[in-house]
Amino acid sequence: MKRIVSLTLLLPVLATLGASAPVAKKPKEPKIAVSTHVDRTAIWVGDTLRYTVRALHDPDIEFVLDNLKKEGLNLAPFVVRDIAVRQGSFGSKKITEVILSLTTYESGQAELRIPSFALYYFTRTAGLQKAAETAAESFPVPPTKVGLRSTLTADNLRLRDSKEIWEVAPQRWILAFVLGLAGMTFLAVRFGTRLWASSHTEKPKRRRLTRRARERKLHDFLRKAQAIGRDTTDDQRRFYSEVSQFVREYFTEWLEIDASSLTPQEVESALQKLGRDGLGAPVKAILERCEQALYTPRGFELGKQWRDEVQGDLGKLAERAR
Fold this sequence. Notes:
Elements: H1 2-20, E1 32-38, E2 42-43, E3 48-57, E4 61-63, E5 78-90, E6 93-104, E7 111-114, E8 117-123, E9 137-141, E10 144-148, H2 170-200, H3 211-226, H4 233-255, H5 264-273, H6 277-295, H7 299-320
Parallel strand pairs: 2-10
Antiparallel strand pairs: 1-3, 3-6, 4-8, 5-6, 7-10, 8-9
Helix pairs in contact: 3-4, 3-7, 4-6, 5-6, 6-7
């Protein structure tokens, strides 16, 4: 009976206490959510690292970007090469990204830390037209770790630390020296053999035409030239072209003069040097008339006029070439 009475008295007290206890409120979402990102988790000394600070915030937040200059941002041991800012929308929120291009020249460490820095912002309130009319606030950007790559071993991180020189056994360098000497000797023998062979190889000598062969060849061409027509332009061109070609080839084979690349005056000089003064003048006259008949505007007219004279000069050439 006593227990029932005591429980009856406690129930109103518990009800009163429960009514007076505060209700737990749901925590509000922060106005600014900051995250950092790097394009690489580890870099070499001197490489450029892209470091992005991303802030997701309410639309009434406006960041102060005028002070974000690479000259005034100290992020040692990193050097700020460039700063870029991008802003956009993300659902009911806005997003602001600060992109930093960083470089470091530190060495001897396994990792580096990008230090924290502050970003300033204004909160727009109803009734204020300008953000400058409100007080500026700031929040810190958390530091970020970046790995530092190195070609040095783990026990020798300093650049000027020396390493014990590995001792080379005498047998190894003697073997390398002998192999190198053998290779040089082989190359020298091959070169000497080729040089000796080239110096003792007889070059084929070009036989000159005999007198009878030259006379037969010249008379055969005279008969062939007389058979060429005189009436048309093609006949004239054919006659003077074959005469010029024959005369040059004839003296090239007989006297070993490269007459194919010489002018008429040069052919005459070459014949005079070889003591063939009687051949210089008629050969020059024949070649000059052939060129004028082939390459001048009055070639057809001159060719008909000189045809008999050139034919006669060829006959004199055959007599003097005996």
